[in-house]
Design goal:
By secondary structure, the chain is mainly α. It is built from six helices and no strands.
């Protein structure tokens, strides 16, 4: 039972990592410090795909399935869990191009948002609020 849960947890972690790798740049629009984690995630995804490396999460899933007595799933995470669900089998190169374009759009948007002047960037020409210079304190509320 425990190894079966571990196998399913590895699949869930795979989905989460893949989603963050592709869509994390959009999260960085709101939380800019995430961009470095997203860049590292994309680098890892590209390295695993380009060099045909075995992902550690795939290794964990395979071993856990074996110890749980489940049949093996040869072919890796993309072939077993993503292909046929998110894109048709046999169209992995096109899916990778689309994923790359999504990442590129998120990064371009991130750079454009960071260059745009605004109250979070310390631009004095853009007021934060009408009462930005005056903050109400608890004593002011009593008056």
């Amino acid at each position: 039972m425990g190894f079966r849960i571990l196998a399913y947890a590895a699949v869930a972690a795979h989905f989460a990592f893949l989603a963050f790798g592709v869509l994390g740049g959009f999260l960085a629009w709101r939380w800019p410090r995430l961009i470095w984690f997203q860049v590292a995630g994309v680098a890892w995804l590209v390295l695993v795909v380009a060099a045909h490396l075995l992902c550690p999460l795939t290794w964990i899933e395979d071993r856990a399935r074996g110890y749980a007595g489940l049949p093996p799933k040869p072919g890796g995470f993309i072939n077993n869990h993503v292909a046929g669900v998110f894109f048709p089998h046999g169209h992995q190169p096109a899916a990778m191009v689309v994923a790359g374009l999504v990442v590129l759009v998120s990064w371009v948007g991130f750079v454009m948002r960071r260059r745009r002047p605004g109250p979070w960037r310390g631009d004095p020409s853009t007021p934060r609020t009408a009462n930005a210079d005056r903050r109400e304190t608890s004593i002011d509320r009593l008056r």
